[in-house]
Every structure is written in structure tokens, then in C-alpha cells.
Amino acid sequence: AGAGTTLLLTGIAELTTNDAARGEGQTDPGDALLGIVRDAAVIVSGSGADARIEWVGPAAEAPDADERRDLGRRAVIPGFVDSHSHLVFAGDRSAEFAARMTGTPYDGGGIAVSVAATRAASDDELRALVAGRVAEMRAQGTTTVEIKSGYGLTLEDELRSLRIARELTPHTTFLGAHVVPREYATRRAAYVDLVTGPMLDAVVADGPTALAESIDVFCEPHSAHAFDGDEARTILEAGRAAGLSLRVHGNQLGHGPGVRLACELGARSVDHCTFLDAADVEALVAARGTTVATLLPGVEFSTRSPYPDARALIDAGVDVALASDCNPGTCYSSSIPLAIALAVREMGMTPAEALHAATAVSARSLGLDRRVAPGQPAELTVLDAPSHLHLAYRAGVPIVRALDL
Ligand code: NIG
Ligand code: FE
């Protein structure tokens, strides 16, 4: 619908609203969680990024609109919110993946390969690569994406990465503390000083959120390249003082301080959470409502790691989100449907919990509301199927597409 015109979407066999008010009174726990409306209609106004939801409800009660579109008895869900990705990179690490499949473990060392290729790429090359990956995501139903820097690791290349990411999403994250780059390998403290000093100053020079919303750190004592708990605390506290919200890569390769640190500092999200002990789970439960545990099952898949026990986390009361972590090393897949299928098959989540985690909870970790409700942006995804159960059921089949308005 153009500006000022309204469009009535009909033929919606099942609508996931993520609206708790619509979940009330539903007997199926999955339907209640997702705020399911069957035989639904939605009215939207405006087009493209400006499209807004005007009305949601049963088709039989739908008011008139200027135009109509029949979706053919399909399921409609909120667009996926991919709250963790590293799309700004050049180069190819497929050989590293192949070696891993025959037993070479992941240790973060390959990041240097992407850093070298990214530094060598022109702005236009990098921009085309990132735009291509965002388009690939949209074709798989993702309508909102967070993008991190972290393959520049010089002041200029980190700023350039964030600028290019910002052209495609407002949800950008400064990850200067991805790894210690090779040229600083024997001077770790000097690199932490660079990240928390001149780099961070430049990131916030035009205002705290002009270039990045958040700061992130790869907190991982099991990788020689990443940061330990003390270094991570220094980096996160500096980012918070500069006005950025906090995100953490924690407990990916083994047990460590990342998850507890993220909870203590009130991070919006701690991501991976592959290796958790009882104290980590306790910290996540206590941080409920503030810190989301973002699980990235594509990473376990692509690194031959055990999966985290999402069932236990949800049963304990932890807020669990799902995201892709699309990156050249640990998971070069941008597919949220794959993450959902793995979450259901390998981590004990119900199909409804997995969909909720990849929409409502991941949105919350970015400070967003993504209910399908009047006043919200019309970011909708259509399934070539009658219900959301088909997302995991039809694994690997391209049944998902973002709705162009
Ligand atoms: O989220 N763990 C740190 N960073 C990425 C992987 C980066 C890479 O290997 O290129 C991740 O898994
Ligand atoms: Fe990551």
C-alpha cells in the first residue's frame, strides 16, 4: 500500500502475533505463547520500511481497506529478528570448515584470515558483500538484523565496517574486541587500550549511538586470541561509560566467566552459552528481564560442538533467544529456519518456543517490540505452509519469505 492507503491481508490460515493479550484463554501452550489467531486478517498502511500495522484480528471481523491481498491460506509470522551476525567480512574460509569436519578444532585463529581479507577489500566490495548477505537473510524471512564489526581491528577498519553496516541496519555493534590482532599479539594490554581509548572514542564521536548501538567482546579464556574475564570487564565497562549497551560472546568453547560477567554488568544479551555450569544458570535466572541468553545452534552444528540444553534453561526461567551468528568461521549460514530446526531437534525447544525465541525474545535483546499489533512496524514473514510447525518440520525447504509491502 502506498503512503496514506491501507491494505487488507487476507487468506491467513494462522497468524503468530507474539501478543500475550491474544494468548489469553488459549489451551495449547504453544498457541498461547505465540498469541496465535486462526483465520486472521491484518491491515497495514504505508510501504517498505514505513509500513505499519493498523488492525489485527479474525478475518470475519476485518474492517474495509483501500486494497486487498489474498495470501492463499498460509501462515504469517513476525519477521525473524536475527540479533547476532558478523556480516562485514571479505575472503573465504571454507577450507577451515572442511578441516574441522575431519577433526581440527575451532580456536578462533582463523579470524585473522578474515581480518586480512577485510582490510584488503575496497569499500564498494565490502558494501556489496554485506548487502548481498542481508538480501540472503531477507529471502529466508529475516526482517531485522544486528550486524557487528570485528574483522577490521584497526581504528579505520572498525569505523568503516560500522559505517557500512549502518547503511543496512540501525542495529550495529562495535566488536573491536573480537580478537587481539596479530600485530598486537605480544602487546595485549596495548590493544585493550586502543579499543577502549581511541577506537571507542571514534565510534561515539558523533553521539553515543550514531555509529553503534552496542559494544561486544569475545570473552573466551579457551582461545589464545580472545579476551579473558578481566580484559572483557575493562572493555564492557568502557563501552557502558561511553553510552553503549552491552553484548557478550560467552562460554562458547568451554566454561568461563563470560556469562556471569554479562549478567553482572546488565548486558542485553550473552551469546553462545554453550558450556554452562549451575552458577551460570543461576546468574541468567537472576538476570531475567535484563539479560537474554542468545543460543546460536548453527555454531554447534558448524563446529561439531555439543549443543546447549535450551530445555533446561527455559525450564529454569531463563530468557532464551535464537540467532544465526552468520560469520565466516563458526557458522556461515544466515538461516533462521535452520537455527529453529536445530533448536527443536537438538536442544529440546518446542516449535513455538523456537519461533518465539527467534522473534520476540531476540527483538527484546535489541530493545525492540515485534508484536504483530496496531502501531508496530509491519515486518511480516509468510510461510508456504498452513502453520508455524512447518518451520522445523520442513527443515531445509525454502518455505519462508519476508512479505514485501
Ligand atoms: O561468534 N566467537 C567469536 N566470533 C565468531 C566467530 C568468528 C570467526 O571465526 O570468524 C562467533 O562464533
Ligand atoms: Fe558471534
SSE arrangement:
Elements: E1 6-16, H1 20-23, H2 29-34, E2 36-45, E3 52-58, E4 67-78, E5 80-82, H3 94-101, H4 111-120, H5 123-138, E6 142-145, E7 147-148, H6 155-166, E8 172-177, H7 188-203, E9 214-219, H8 229-241, E10 245-250, H9 258-264, E11 269-272, H10 278-286, E12 292-295, H11 297-303, H12 310-316, E13 320-322, H13 336-346, H14 351-365, E14 380-383, H15 390-393, E15 400-402
Helix pairs in contact: 5-6, 6-7, 7-8, 9-10, 13-14
The structure holds N-(iminomethyl)-L-glutamic acid and fe (iii) ion (FE).
Binding site for N-formimidoyl-L-glutamate: 151, 327, 329
Catalytic activity: 4-imidazolone-5-propanoate + H2O = N-formimidoyl-L-glutamate
Pathway: Amino-acid degradation; L-histidine degradation into L-glutamate; N-formimidoyl-L-glutamate from L-histidine: step 3/3
